[in-house]
Design brief:
about 400 residues, alpha+beta, Alpha-Beta Plaits, 8-stranded mixed beta sheet, binds zinc ion
Amino acid sequence: MSVKERLLRYVRVDTQSDPESETHPSTEKQFDLANLLVEELKEIGLTDAAVDQNCYIYAHLPANTEEKLPRIGFIAHMDTSPDFSGKDVSPRIIENYDGGDIKLNQERTTLVADFPWMKDLAGKTLMVTDGTTLLGADDKAGIACIMDALEYYYNHPEEKHGEIAVAFTPDEEIGRGTDCFDIEKFGADFAYTMDGDSVSFYSDETFNADSAVVSVRGFAIHPGNSKNRMKNAALIAAQYASRLPEALTPAHTEGREGFIHLQEIRGSVEEAELSYILRDFSREALAKYHTLMERLCDYMNAEYGEDCLRVTFRESYRNMGEVLSGQPEPSILAVKALTKLGYLPEKLPIRGGTDGAALSFRGLPCPNLGTGGNNFHGPYEYCVMEELEDAAVLIRTILACALEDYL
Ligand SMILES: [Zn+2]
């Protein structure tokens, strides 16, 4: 089976995760793909492949050389985003793409004006949606290229490699992809999540992430009789939001800049609440956002009375760069392999988190690699077939470079 055929097969299985669900996995249907993958893994020689009760697949391809090589892992997630339907995905292949707008159906067209990087893809082969669903290349492209690399070793036993660990996980899109991840069972020295976009990018840095809740306590009183006494919590909340620097909102930041993002605001005269997420690549900057938000509370409390506003913070995840800068081997290997494949590797700090961030802090160094997809989580998602094929070769090249390093 070609890697393209694999992707076509996997995207047709609906695996959407559900943030409202309390179960692991969040949706039972993720087992549909898991069971299919376990069968396929066994067919290509990973005899220990199995899915556990939380829908995590672990499988290993033993080394076929005596050399003492690192055990390298590859991870991809099976679920698709709750943001857009992943049911009845019916993809279309565009050969020799002309670099222009793509009419997906009567109502929907992918406009190059909205996604300007697409004009650089002229001449490539794209997989696109029919406009009614997302594609699910995020992250079934990751699964497809890992499976393709494994199948290659099955057909080429003469190709030497160290032990390979594979994991396919549920619920990444709802931030629970590593909740039940068994690092010991996975048994790799380091790993890669195959969950990025362009193959030329590799990522060994993520944001530091916290959430913050600002609670506002008002004083409700009959409005006809409230002069100099009423404290309208909803109005105070709106004032708080407007007093934080606009330059620190996501709409004004890019690259390595961090932000304070207001996600939700709700309230009445009696009480109100503002929900924020805070992001930055540096911990120090993140700490400054805390200080800024606390000081604004103090400042406004001086005006509205003690305990009117209160902010509480919660840690979400930390920049995996803190771990990976001390353990650069996986990144060095990835750069070497990409260069060998003719790419100009570009380090891309992820303006978000990955499963690899949590795993790196739990002792499994885990940068992220691209698989050729883009415009994720919606109907404009696509995958570049040439890059998908390269991503599969990249996996084998990483293993070959590890062997070369040893010899
Ligand atoms: Zn993903």
